[in-house]
Amino acid sequence: MTDRSVAPAILITMPHSHYSEKARWALDWLALPYREEPHAPLMHRLATTRNSGGSVPVLVHGSKRFVDSTDIVVHADAVSGGDLLYPRDATLRREVETLEEQFDDELGPHTRRWAYAQLLPETHLLRKAMSRGVPWFEARSLPVVMPLVRNLIRTSLRITPESAHRSIERVRCIFQGIDERLGDGRRFLVGERFTTADLTFAALAAPVLFPAGYRAAYPALAEVPASMRDEALRLRDTDAGRFALRLYSQERGGSSTW
Ligand SMILES: N[C@@H](CCC(=O)N[C@@H](CS)C(=O)NCC(=O)O)C(=O)O
What is the pLDDT of residue 7? Predict the structure, then answer.
């Protein structure tokens, strides 16, 4: 019996998390059956620590637990036969893994910090996103724990006006690097087809791009403060931005159940 044939996997997420979207996109793209279990912030820790994890996403698949988005994608690719989101060719695979790691370590934290800096004052928008699909008692508790959640986010991600500014500068710089990479007319970041390098870029850039088809819970572009909207429109109007939007429209099929 292969891992694909055991009971459907469970993907533990927070509704608004972009690393969760990375894992969700990979499972959808590979058509690996799963059920999503979204939790509100803070309360997610009950579900993740029970499964030897901490942050989201966590994938529970049969007797196995994967507590990092990259480990989830690697596992899903392998049980789906391999050579799908990671090329079998060793040189291409190394290039894909290097880019994925850079996006995980840099792009993801910087888009998140800048987006939270814009959205933390927008309690209503944030609460709406954070409660989508979560158990009813978590949704009911969210207004009570919201001040604590906002403080924790601000302190743990070290959000200040200066750090948010540095983060968006870093995002612009990463986008410029992608613009240059795409400058030779290539359609994907590595090789001739879609890989986890493309997926990870598009998923972790989503908080600054508001792509149609983004499956994380997120406010609409029209609802957010004008300064956030203006920056998103500027980033959309780059080769890297257009590339991520194209990946959302062409490669983001499938759906999760929660
Ligand atoms: N390296 C991890 C990062 C995941 C991560 O930072 N998740 C955030 C949400 S986007 C989170 O769970 N934060 C709350 C926590 O750490 O408890 C991965 O790729 O899965």
Answer: 79
Q: Find all residues with CB under 8 Å of 38, minimum gap 6, and list them.
A: 13, 14, 15, 132, 133, 134, 258
Instruction: Kindly report the protein residue whose alpha carbon is nearest to atom 11 of ligand 1.
Output: 55
Which atom from ligand 1 is nearest to the alpha carbon of 44?
17
Q: What are phi and psi of 102, to 5 degrees?
A: -60, -45
| Of 23, 43, 50, nearest in space to 34 by CA | 23
Q: Smallest Cα–Cα separation from 36: which of 14, 68, 4?
A: 14
pLDDT higher than 60, residue 123: yes
pTM over 0.85: yes
Contacts of 49 (CB under 8 A, 6+ apart): none
Residue with CA at minimum distance from ligand 1 atom 12: 55
Residue 253 has a pLDDT of: 83
Distance (Å) from CA 14 to ligand 1 centroid? 9
Portion of the chain with pLDDT greater than 70, in percent: 96
What the chain holds in terms of domains, given with CATH numbers, is 3-79 (3.40.30.10), 90-251 (1.20.1050)
Q: Is the CB of 17 under 6 A from ligand 1?
A: yes
Q: What is the pLDDT of residues 216-231, one digit of tens each?
A: 999 999 999 999 999 9
**Are 114 and 171 spatial neighbours (Cβ–Cβ below 8 Å)?**
yes
pLDDT at 6: 72
11 lines ligand 1 (CB under 6 A): no
pLDDT tens per residue across span 157-178: 999 999 999 999 999 999 999 9
- Cβ–ligand 1 distance for 24 under 6 Å, the answer no
CA 56 to ligand 1 centroid distance, Å: 5
**Ligand 1 within 6 A of 110 CB?**
no
